[in-house]
Amino acid sequence: MHKKLSRLVRGICILLIVSTIAAASYADDAALKVAITQIVEHPALDSTRQGIVDEIKEQNADVSIEYENAQGSIPTAIQIGQKFLSMKPSLIVAISTPSAQAVLRGDEGVPIVFAAVSNPDAAGLTYKEVRTFVTGTTDLPPVDAQLSFAQELFPQAKKVGVIYNSGEANSASFIGQLKKECLKAKLELIESVVTKSSDVSAAVTKIVSSGVDFILLPQDNTVVSALDAVLRATTAAHIPIVASDTDLIVKGVFAAVGYSRYEAGRETGKMVMDVLRGVPVRDIPIHPAGKLKKIINMNLKQVLGKEIPESILKQYELFRE
């Protein structure tokens, strides 16, 4: 009788321990909170964010997510960063270079995972002292790959246009490399600089009137947020755009070389979940957001009057609605 009672007590104790652990685990999951900050809402960044959220929710539906965007304002991005850091969430996701730099003002207390950052080195995100709490994905395709793709599509081209915000670290890095590549390729580069999205319409008008053969579109948040204005002017002038974001194909650019923003978001979401499970941030390397893709928009081939040889079309992914 005593032995039976002893076994019963042990069994009850084991059940209580297991239940307590399970309950604590559930409570820990329920307490997980991810704060997402984004510099501005536009299709590319929104697609990245959706990929992140989908991956997090697929792996753990109990994770709480708070999101704010800065409407293109650096001071607002800094305010959001300060707010999120003071909240002490489980983790902060920063979408875009300005948003990542805004939350970098914190300390090691809150892990940071960034996305849609073209040049983490230039943004100050790879220093040894911050890598203990900062990691993320990069999404800048090689500039030479973007330019050579455009040259393959338009071999007679002599003038290249580009619109960018010189205040964005990613764009400054892109332009520096593009100037070198254009010199090598003996192409004339026509630049138009903007400081805010309302400047873009005038900037694209200037570029179009300069007689460029095509326009390269960097991952510039200011310009992409005013993409409709860019497309109206370039389509009317029959000037193709080659973007560094494949998700912009559906918005109306002629061709793109880069990474899928949604898939980049999914990859970033996996990194978020690794951190939430306890993997040390410094052990998660900063890496490219996926496989580089090259896409041609067949819907615009006739609209813009551009003939692309079949031998080239066979090599790349073709988009048709």
Provide a descriptive summary of the structure in words.
- The chain has 321 residues and is of the alpha/beta class.
- It has 2 domains: 32-139 and 261-288, Rossmann fold (3-Layer(aba) Sandwich); 143-258 and 293-319, Rossmann fold (3-Layer(aba) Sandwich).
- It is built from 12 helices and 13 strands.
- It has helices spanning 2-31, 43-59, 74-87, 97-103, 143-153, 169-185, 200-209, 221-224, 227-236, 261-276, 298-303, 310-313; strands at residues 33-38, 64-69, 91-95, 112-117, 134-138, 159-165, 188-194, 214-217, 241-243, 255-258, 287-288, 293-297, 317-319.
- The protein has a 7-stranded mixed β-sheet with strand order 7-6-8-9-10-12-13, with helices on both faces.
- Strand 6 (159-165), helix 6 and strand 7 (188-194) form a beta-alpha-beta unit.
- The model is unreliable at 1-5 and 11-30 (pLDDT under 50).
List strands and helices in order, with pairings.
Elements (H helix, E strand, L loop, with lengths): L1 H30 L1 E6 L4 H17 L4 E6 L4 H14 L3 E5 L1 H7 L8 E6 L16 E5 L4 H11 L5 E7 L3 H17 L2 E7 L5 H10 L4 E4 L3 H4 L2 H10 L4 E3 L11 E4 L2 H16 L10 E2 L4 E5 H6 L6 H4 L3 E3 L2
Parallel strand pairs: 1-2, 1-3, 3-4, 4-5, 5-11, 6-7, 6-8, 8-9, 9-10, 12-13
Antiparallel strand pairs: 10-12
Helix pairs in contact: 2-10, 3-4, 7-9
